[in-house]
Structure formats: C-alpha cells, structure tokens
Amino acid sequence: MLSALSFLNTLSSYAANGYIRYPILLEGSKQWCESLLDSFFIQQSSRFTKIELYGDLTISTYAAFPIKSALKKLGQETDCLVIDISHEFNANAINAVCGTVIGGGLVFFIRTDDSSLPTVVEQWFSQYIEQMVSLKETETSYELPLIPRLKDEAFKSDAGIHRSSDQERAVKAIQKVVTGHSKRPLVMTADRGRGKSSAIGIAIAELAMERSLIIGVTAPLRNSIDEIFKHAERVASLNGLKVESQKNQLMINESQIIYIAPDELLRNPQALDLLCVDEAAAIPAPMLLSFVDQYSRMVFSTTINGYEGTGRGFEVKFKKQLYKKRPNTRSLEMKHPIRWSNNDPLEAWLSSVFLLNHEEQSNSLSIDTPMTTIDYRCISVSQLVNQDALAQSLFSLLVSAHYQTSPNDWISLLTDPTLRCWIGIEKSTNKLVCCALLSKEGELDLDIINAAQLGKRRPKGHLAAISLTQTLCIDEPAFQSSIRVMRIAVDPSYQQRGIGSKFINAIENNYKAKGVDYLSTSFGSTAELNHFWYKLNFHFVRLGISKDKASGTHSLLAIKPLSHRAFSWISIGNDYFTTSFPEQLMSTFSSLDYNDVLSLLKGVSFKEKLSPLINKKLETFALGGLGYELLQYELRYFILSHLSALALLSEAQKKLAVTKILQVKQWSVVLEECNLIGKKNAELQLRELIKSLLTNLQCKS
C-alpha cells in the first residue's frame, strides 16, 4: 500500500511505460487536492512540461482557466490536465480538452467537499467512477491498478513522417485521389487521436513536392484545420521546401493551400485541384453532396467518436447518398491511435461517461417487414440515469440523425427541468425505434414579453415563443403554453414507414389533452424536412434571414395550434408568411434552391382572384404578345395565386417559374441554372409554361 504522493508517482511511470493516459479522481478538501498536486508536479517537473488547469484552482505557478476556454485548445498537445468539476461539468469542453493529452499523460478531476453539481449529474458521474483511478482524502493507503503492457511496438518514432502504418496508408490514399482517376472521392473515418488530420497535412506537403496545385481545405470550424496546416508546414520544412504561412493560406513551393468556410465554398465555388473536407460529419449531407457535384477530386475526413458527437450520422446519411453519386468512392478507416496506445483508460472512460460508444444502426430490415406495435411514451430523468443501456441507445440514435448533437445535450437533458424526452419502443423486440427531445416554452409574464418585443430581453429557453412574439408583434405566442420539438430521430432501419408522423401525432395528442396551446419546431429548412412538417399540418411562420455556417440552411419556424386560444392567432402567422416570404424571394432568398422554394410555398395561401384585365394580359403573353419585363407583376401574381397548379408542370418548367418569375434572377443566371440557350429561347419557354397553366386551369373551371 502506498501514500497518495507515492501512488501518483508510480501511476505516472505506469502511464509513461504503457503510453496510456489515466483519468484520476481526487476527492476531499480543496486544500488537500491542491497541496497533493503541488507536491506531485514538483517531483514530476522533468516529465510534465505542459500542464493546464481549469476551474477555481491555485497550484504552484500555473494559471487556471475557465473550462469553457478548453474548446479553443483543439490541435494542441498537453502532458497533464487538472479539471475542477466541483461546480461545473461542461461535457463538451472536458471531452475536447482530454483529446489534447498525449500518451503517458494524466488527467486529474477534482471534486471537493463543497461540490454543488446537480444531484442527477452526481448520480450519472458516480456510475463511472469505477473506471477511474480514485483517491480520497479520508483514505490513507491506495492500491495501484494492474501494470499496463509496454508501449505498442506498432508505434513509429515521433521524428518520422508517418507515426503508424495506418497513417502511412491514409497518406497514400489521399495522394491517389489527385494522381488517380477523377470522381473517386476518399472517405476517411477514425476515432479521435488516430492522426487523420495530420495525414491530410502530410499528403498535401508531399504532393506539393511533385507538382503545382491549388488545394482547398474546409471544416465547420476554422481551428479544426490547424493540425492540417501545422503538419503540412512541418513536412515541407523537413524536405527543405519553400514555405510561406498566413492565417488561411499556406504556400509550399508553387502550391497553394487555402482554408475556405463551408458556406463560402458553396456560395463562391473555387477552381481547385483537390478539396479536403475535415470533420465532414459536422456538415449536413445536402451541403456535402453539393461539394461532390462541384469538385471531381475530394477527400472527406471525420471523427466517428469524439467531442463532435456526429460521426455515426455521417456514416448513415451521407455515405449512402455519396455511393449513388460516385460508385467508385473509396473508404478507409484509421483504427490505430498515434497519440496514445490501444486500450487507453482515459479514452474508455470518456466514451462511457459521455455516451460515445455509438451503436451501428443496422439497415437490414426490408420496407415490407411487418412491425409490431410501438409504444410511444415520455420517460423521466431517473429512468435515463438508471438505465445506461437505454441512455446509450437513445444518444446514439440522436447522434445518427442530428449533426449538432453533443455530450452537453446529454447533460442538459439530465439537468434542465424544461426538457422532456420521448421514446418509441417496439413491443415485440423491446428495441428503441425513435426518440425526441422537447422543450416546454411560453407562459411568460407580460412585462417580459413586452421587453422581448422591443429587443431588450430574450429569456433563455423560449426560442420559438420569443421569436413568434417578436416577429408577429403579438403577446399570445409567449403568453400561451407551448411544447417545442427540438430533435426527433427514427432508427434508419425503421424509416419510410410513417413512424415519425405517428410519433409526432402521439406527442400532439398527449399535450393537447394536457391543455398545451400549440406545438412548435425550428429546423434547418430542406425540401424533405419541410414536406414532413407540412404533412403534419404545421404552419410555416418565419424563415431565418441568416444561414447556419456549418449546415448552409436557413432555420424555419413552424407551429401547430392545439387549443382554441392558439387557433385565434394562427391566421396572423399564416398571413405574415404569405406576405413576407414571396417578397423575400426577390432579395434575401433569391439564391434558395428551387426545390426548397417549392416546398416552402406550400405554406403560402393567396386568396385574391385575378381581374379580367390581368387574365387577358397573361393570355396575350402566352400567345407571344407583350414581354416579360412589361408583365413581371402580373406573372408573379398569377403564379402565387395558383401555386397548387405548379404540380402540373415539368421539373424544368417549375425551375424556370421559380428562378425567373418568383426570384426574379438575371437572365444570365436563369440561362445557366435552367440549362437554356439565349434569352429569346428562355422567354419562349416562359410563355409555354404560362400557356400550359392557363389551359389546365380553364379545363378545371
């Protein structure tokens, strides 16, 4: 048996010899924890040179930082961390900063006697203490864990270019994308710490040695690509190449490597010899597929289990669609860690406590396979805490469906009293089929509502209620009660069976019976999602002006009244969308894809009839008279008054009607987007589609 200090010194040598990292929990008074670590760092001063502290701590000469600042440390390396979790448990930040600790390092978690963590977080955390090394002030002797295996021989020297055979294989595969046939993208997946980002950097530098290239690099966050630039510069310098570095650009010999944000890349396509997308899982599938259409040589790289919490959704959603577009896509998985050994205790603990052991969602069920009854119900926090298998299944399902799902969402679900969790369990198999996160909103005081309308206050947690009261300038949406659907996910093997719709209907019936006034939801607008919510009789109210930088989509706010009180003001929301959205199509939303526009126009309902004079003008236009520029108002008015008739047109005609008549794009843009030759031909096509609509409408009347 050893004293605490001797124990830590021995544990440190275990970590170094095995090239592994230990999560260590110190429990006791703040003074005891700080004093123990102060002595330990003095004795280990030659081994630990990069030590970082997070929380309210005073240890030697080390500065302590707020835990939220840890998210800025991505791409860095540390030897040792000390994190005070006594009063704050920021799951995203903890998980992110732990990824910076290299093999041989230690991570200390301090929980002092005056800990004020929510009880439910304490309960959840306590379930995984047995996976940690635990030291308590009240104990006088400690037992060491088993001696780990020595550092894996598969590791290569840190001084070498490639630090594992996995990484060397990845570098060659990336280079093959440039040197081989076009339209054969590479998809690289890996758990954290496998060296995928550095592999991209190495490959770029080695390519730059042989030829002059323009290489684009994109990622949802700018700091995500720091590792790529760092390793490209390192390898180039080792090979004596000329290197010039700027914030978003790296010049190696005659080659140019540039960072471009995803939304900017979509808005302004570049002439690139290679496009590398890092952390691709955090970019929604529609945006990634747009890149595939634009670039013939691409590398997609993403973390499967990491603080991003998004990799499985990438596996399920994107790769399936990618193989349809590019059948010769190649996949590569990097399994061997390079920053620590296999069976790393810290990695195992993080995966357990933050639910990162994401399950593969099978797609083996046929659409014709019969299903038994599904039980839809709301579950309590205590059920989640006490059933870790259900918790893992639920979180895996959310991750597979929503690119923004992160470990902090799990902690919020445990601690936020306004959140509700619903699940759907197939009775015969007891399998989790679907889940949803809901938020209770509204019922605010009038003084808060009035302040919110003036932009002076924005109460936390009332996203839809406040947005509605501000947009519509009425009190009711924030005064009445609401349930907002934050996330909904259906197991991929159970999709296309109407389960999502039945799930929402079950939620609706439950809260309608409880007297809730309306349901709301806010989501990244796509044609598919717009159609889903419209079919459920949700009313579109507002499309967000700004695009989400990562998803490239506008946020759509939709509501469904449940009570007579809510029905009394729903017409105001309908009128707002009907009048504002068509006008915005000519300016703010002029670049929206025509399919997205058509799906949104389902929420528009013009009721005015056309005058005989306007009808005559349209008939004249259809027969070759007048001209588009003389009839812009009448043409828009006609299309908006007969939106349902657009279904009778061909896809080419729908696209032309949206881009020229509703979005009023320049002729040059319309010609390019609609694959038409010459303005005269385009105007002829416009006349034909108007003639077709008039003929169909006359047949119906």
Describe how the helices and strands are arranged.
Layout: H1 4-18, E1 22-28, H2 30-43, E2 51-54, E3 64-65, E4 78-84, H3 91-98, E5 101-112, H4 119-126, E6 133-136, H5 165-179, E7 186-190, H6 196-210, E8 214-218, H7 226-238, E9 243-246, E10 249-252, E11 255-259, H8 262-267, E12 274-277, H9 285-294, E13 298-303, H10 311-325, E14 330-334, H11 345-353, E15 374-379, H12 381-386, H13 388-401, H14 407-415, E16 419-426, E17 431-442, H15 446-453, H16 463-472, H17 476-479, E18 481-490, H18 499-513, E19 518-524, H19 527-535, E20 539-547, E21 554-561, H20 564-567, H21 570-584, H22 594-600, H23 612-622, H24 632-641, H25 651-662, H26 667-673, H27 679-700
Parallel strand pairs: 1-5, 1-6, 2-3, 2-4, 4-5, 7-13, 7-14, 8-11, 8-12, 12-13, 18-19
Antiparallel strand pairs: 9-10, 10-11, 15-16, 16-17, 17-18, 19-21, 20-21
Helix pairs in contact: 1-2, 5-6, 6-7, 9-10, 10-13, 19-22, 22-25, 23-27
Textual characterization of the structure:
- This protein folds into four domains: 1-136, Rossmann fold, CATH 3.40.50.11040; 165-334, Rossmann fold; 374-586, Gcn5-related N-acetyltransferase (GNAT) (Aminopeptidase), CATH 3.40.630.30; 612-699, no CATH class.
- The chain has 27 helices and 21 strands.
- The strands form three sheets. It has an eight-stranded mixed β-sheet, with helices on both faces. Strands 15-16-17-18-19-21-20 form a seven-stranded mixed β-sheet, sandwiched between helices.
- With 701 residues, it is of the alpha/beta class.
- Helix content is 42%, strand content 19%.
- Helix 1 packs across helix 2 and helix 5 crosses helix 6.
- The chain is globular.
- The longest helix is centred in the C-terminal third of the chain and has 22 residues, at 679-700.
- Residues 374-563 form the N-acetyltransferase domain.
- This is tRNA(Met) cytidine acetyltransferase TmcA.
- It comes from Aliivibrio finisterrensis.
